[in-house]
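User: Could you check the structure of this?
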Amino acid sequence: MYKKFAALLLAVALCAACGVTAWAEMQQEPFEEQELCLFNPGEETAIGWLTLGEYTADQLEVSAEWGEKCAPYIRSVRLGAEAAGDIQILICLRDYWGLEPVEITGYLQILEKETGRNVTPEVRPIIPSQRIRLRDGFLGWNRDQGLYSLGKEYRYDAVTQTLVYPEFRGEAVSKSGQKVDAPVLDLTQFPGEISRLEISFGKSGVSFAGRMIRQEPLNLLYSQAPDSFVRDLDPGAEMEFISFPAEPEWDFTGTVSWKLPDSERQWHVYAVEGQALTELETAFSDAGDCICFQARKFGSYVLCDSELESRPAAVETPAPQRNPETGRAGMALVSALGVIELL
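Assistant: Sure, the predicted structure tokens are below.
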């Protein structure tokens, strides 16, 4: 998602000779420089092209030195996608659902596999330096500034302190016309007290209503992508999915409502955790067009018109470790914990 945008911006960053932010002119308020996300968690992103010259792709490898803050979030970096004598640098980052973006910084070198010789200047002749500096890239998600800055439609009742947010889409549009994920809802910046929130998630048919007091910002990124494991449990059934990978938690338990595709049929809602399914206790809305359940912490859910087999979550029980001195299983762990507590 947005790979072309990310590749363009980071390619500019890789080729820039000065320290000026490469994409500063492309942004507009209310996005601040440190809030623009260029990397998507779990996806491989191309950050630039190298000229192979006399080399072939299998003769080269990439070596990386990452910044201290971003190192834990790096899954891999490699060379790939060869075309017309050029090759891309591909970075894949780990899943990250935090509220603040993490800046991706570091240095890369292109090495000859056989000898380990640094050939970075040869394959990047535009700037023949000994290493490639990464900057201006961020892992994370923007805040949804639209509620209080971009003029999205909402209704606010100052008497009941109720905020109705009719279409939380988790995205905003930058000056260049590119969409940027902005799913972090920050109600602390709303110019009014909020005692109750009613929020609908785009065109998903799913909405939430609940009490608020001092609701902290939440990452409400959501996906409607089908879960292949659940889908295969009953290929003939009609199913709809929604998942919140950040598992956001509200101030209080509230009501989740899911618009029914057909109110004349029987429907079930299941919470999905890996390969575990738990059917939720539900009720119909007064109008009969929605099925409702209670939730405080969001996860992954499926709406299905057939009854699926509930599967409890597997509980992993670690095998007991034997203490070589006493022969008693588990004693070494208990003793170690006791020492920590005493200290």
